[in-house]
Amino acid sequence: MVPIAIPANLAANAAGSDEPDLRDWVAGLPRVVAETAARWALRLGEPFQPGGGCSWVAPARDHAGRDLVLKVGWRHPEALHEADGLALWAGDGAVRLYAAHTFAETTVLLIERCRPGTTLSRVVAEPEQDAVVAGLLRRLWREPPPGHSFRALQVMCDQWAAGFQRRLSATPGSVDAGLARAGLALWRALPASAGSSVVLCTDLHAENILAAQREPWLVCDPKPYVGDPAYDALQHMLNCTERLVADPAGFARRMAELLDLDTDRLTRWLFARCVMDAPENAELREVAARLAP
């Protein structure tokens, strides 16, 4: 078997993970990559560095000479329907999907290559990123098609809530009890009270938006669910830590205006999301305390 380079982030994640399945999966990557390249008649380049924590991603060319990217991903719950989301969007604001295959613990995607492929975070200041993120989200939001396989946002929130309670039990006193109760109650209730339900990206931030030639910016690495559009602003906001800590209410108001969302609802989502991360993050504990209803 021809050895392959393992990107730095994937190697570090596997080495530090308590998931033996992930370590075994990384060890088996040379075989999976070789089989996939043969299946689709691909010529592969070196993987992108430092890469992601759960996937091996490299430039590729097929027999027709198309400029592509091969993504070989470890199957984990968050990314379960990445291919379905890309297929639904069909290149409208997101990278195009050309082929997908799932087997054992692996999902492989053959997708459009973005050139120059620079991330939004590297070339656009945070305040200007807001408008790009909002513009892309408004294009991605659409009604789920009949018979779709996307999971409900409620499913994800219930799983996170259970994990939050386990972490609180392991670190008693890490979060104010009243704050934890209020955040947990909202986190569980908000998905069911949404006025509309759309296909969500759920993990859209400036690292997952790439400069391209077909369009100025394209989304990659979505983690689709179906639910409240107000949820979808959160990951970008959490990635802008300084602004979030400085003025969480003002930041929520700005994003709500750009996305034509109810400011109070987005603020409640932001409060609940910060509570979910509060046991390990002192800055988000402070943000949650300031936003508490």
Summarize the topology.
Layout: H1 8-16, H2 20-27, H3 29-39, E1 43-44, E2 55-61, E3 67-74, H4 82-89, E4 97-103, E5 106-112, H5 120-123, H6 126-140, H7 153-170, H8 177-189, E6 198-200, E7 209-211, E8 217-219, E9 225-227, H9 234-239, H10 241-246, H11 248-259, H12 263-277, H13 282-291
Antiparallel strand pairs: 1-2, 2-3, 3-5, 4-5, 6-9, 7-8
Helix pairs in contact: 1-2, 6-11, 8-12, 11-12, 12-13
Protein described:
There is one protein chain. The chain is α+β, with helices and mostly antiparallel strands and 293 residues long. The protein has two domains: 8-112, Phosphorylase Kinase, domain 1 (2-Layer Sandwich), CATH 3.30.200.20; 120-291, Alpha-Beta Complex (Aminoglycoside 3'-phosphotransferase, Chain: A, domain 2), CATH 3.90.1200. The chain is 46% helix and 15% strand. The strands form three sheets. It has a five-stranded antiparallel sheet, sandwiched between helices. The termini are far apart. The mean pLDDT is 95.
The proportion of strand residues reads 5-15%
Indicate the radius of gyration in whole angstroms. 20 Å
Strand order of the largest sheet: 1-2-3-5-4
Q: How widely separated are the two ends?
A: 58 Å
The helix content is 40-55%
Shape: globular
User: Helix-strand pattern, N to C?
Assistant: HHHEEEHEEHHHHEEEEHHHHH
Task: Examine the coordinates and then state which fold CATH places here, giving the name of the CATH topology of the largest domain.
Answer: Aminoglycoside 3'-phosphotransferase, Chain: A, domain 2
Judged by helices, strands and strand pairing, the structural class is alpha+beta
The profile of the biggest β sheet is: 5 strands, antiparallel
CATH class of the largest domain: Alpha Beta
* Tally of helical segments: 13
Number of domains: 2
Which architecture name of the largest domain does CATH use?
Alpha-Beta Complex
